[in-house]
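Dear all,

This email documents one entry for the complex benchmark we are building for the journal club exercise. For each entry we list the sequence lines for every component of the assembly. Then comes the predicted three-dimensional structure of the complex as a token string, followed by one or two observations. Please use this as the template for your own entries, and keep the labels exactly as they appear.
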Amino acid sequence: MEPLLSINNLKTRFHTEDGIVKAVNGVSYSMKVGEVLGVVGESGCGKSVHALSIMRLIQIPPGEIESGEIWFDGRDLLKLDNNDMRHVRGRDIAMVFQDPMSSLNPVYTVGFQICEALMLHKKMNKNEARHRAVELLTLVGIPEAKRRLDNYPHQFSGGMRQRAMIAMALSCEPKLLIADEPTTALDVTIQAQIINLVVKLQEELGMAVMWITHDLGIVAEMAHTINVMYAGYIIERGNVRDIYKRTLHPYTFGLLGSLPVIDEAPGTKLISIPGLPPDLIDLPKGCPFYVRCTYRVDQCKFELPPLMESESSQHTVACWRWQEIDGKGTK
Amino acid sequence: MAEINPQDTEIVDFAIREHRSLWLDAWRRLIANKIAMLGLFVVALFILTASLSHFFWKYDPKSDLDYSSKLFAPNLVVTEDAPAVHIFGTDKLGRDIFRRVVHGGWNSLRVGLVSVSISLAIGGLMGLLAGFFESIDMNFWERVTLMGLLGLGLGSLSAWIAAQFFQIFLFSGLGIFSVVFQRWKAGKKVRILAFAVMGMLLGGVSGLLVGPLVGLVCGFLGLGVGMILARPLGGKLFSDVTMRIMDVILSFPSYLLAIAIVAFLGPGLEKGMIAIGVVGIPVYARLARSAVLSVSQKEYVLAAQAVGESHGRILFKHIVPNILSPIIVQSTMGLANAILSAAALGFLGLGAIPPEPEWGAMLGDSYKYLSSGAWWAVLFPGLAIMLSVLGFNLLGDGLRDALDPKMRI
């Protein structure tokens, strides 16, 4: 089957005063229709930047999409003109952002902001749009949606705002929903509600979801496939089972190890990965994880490991020594 | 035991308040603020008396003089010495000061409104565009529009200068210079041509407002300007150029600049309005730019882009409403400032032309008589200036608190 989204060697750079920040370094992967993809990695590993590159919302300058192809629904998004791209945004690909407190415009009612997308892309009139907005708010679980429509964002709680944002994103029935850490700013119970909501909606509407997070626990519940990113590279990619049960990359191994486990004896220290991620302006020639890796050999220092197939073509890893790590990562 | 039927229980929604808009909220906060209400009262009184007297109590300053009642002290009843009631007394030409103060209010109101409108329209628009183009990359047509605007501005400026001083040759030379030294880039020729033609048309049209020959010259000038600026102009460059021009204006002491402009244009209330307006431009440009820059970093602007909204829509629907409150506050304060500047110009004899009642000019006329005891001729116009400025400032302060409750300086 034709993939929905197919990214080929995407490279995004930022030209800053200190030098060129290489934020995304040749990312390639594809997503099927209706697939839930989790993108994980620590802060500054290029998760959000690669998502913004797909939407072409990188600010140019200082940003620049240096090379690559982003095939979506038979079109290369990087070759579309601005006007066509505008119609892709919102209608075909929708995005939910991290901070629900600032992603709604304080001077308009929530209903107005949802209607806006509907009137723009679906050419609905005001009444139809309002009607649909009520349906959407009900769908995302906001009680008394009809009255809430005329509320201003400050009258909504954080969780409700994020629901409203999701309603906005879903308004035009996008084929792909990009959720950029949508639950980071929310507390844990609300997080669970939002995740369940997105999973439910994803199944009902059959859209693909890209869930960007630094929390491996979240994606374990919902994702089909996981991309682990580090320093702008995808270093491991596979389905959820493989990533968690047959971890192949030492970094993923470290990430999993640093999760707190509920039945651990009190006082047990969490494992942390020593060192810091490399400077994106001055990337090492070899493996970006070299300095922090406990499995390093000289080859790692000089040769950048490509994303190679492991035991199955579905599970790829960028590590020279994955065969030795294979199996040790099970917990 | 009776079963509870969910349909029977009434849903009490105490959590949902009646929705009301931000403006209504701000209005309520304003009403609750006593000092702001005092300001509003003074301002309302000032506007009412000034406009009512202008429309319903005609005053002809040229025929209003009566040497027989020179410098009469304020009197409330008719006596032998004072045949008419002058509650504020009379000035050196025997004119009733009360009447002149009231009619002077109309002039002050006009100066305030017109000059703030000039500063706000030019400064606000420039700041808005500068901030917007700095924060969002432009597409082709936006650049064309921007170039057109610049062409129009430069074209009309040059047309005006040309009409004034016949410095056509200088400027056409500049145009030729820019054409010759244009760096032609492959693939960009079409774009350059578009900009150039746009600049020519706009420059030409604005030039035609002055005269056909000037229009022609300005058209070619616009052509040149379009060509210089046609190179892939980042929004940052536009912003930099605009803001540096603003810095240049700001580097002059404001009264000095206003006096210089009036000296250049000639005296008169209208010229004074222009001068005060021009001096105020950078304030609004800076304010608008900084507000746009901070608002455009907000996530809702990114979210609006992610929904696929166009730049124009984002600018006017999402950014402008969010920067309105500082601009409203600044404009209110600006009115006070404009009234004060007009009075200063009038005092120096550069604002209103003499028989015209104007507070500053009245002060300037009468302060010489202070030593002979005619305090009323100075006190009342002075009070009028003070009260109206105070009123606008109090109102402005109150508006700031009401519109932006989180920001208190």
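Observations: The interface with chain B takes residues 55, 57, 59-61, 82-83, 86-91, 94-95, 97-99, 102-109, 116-117, 120-121, 144, 147-148, 150-152, 155, 165, 168 of chain A (CB under 8 Å). The CA atoms of residues 195 and 327 of chain A lie 30 Å apart.
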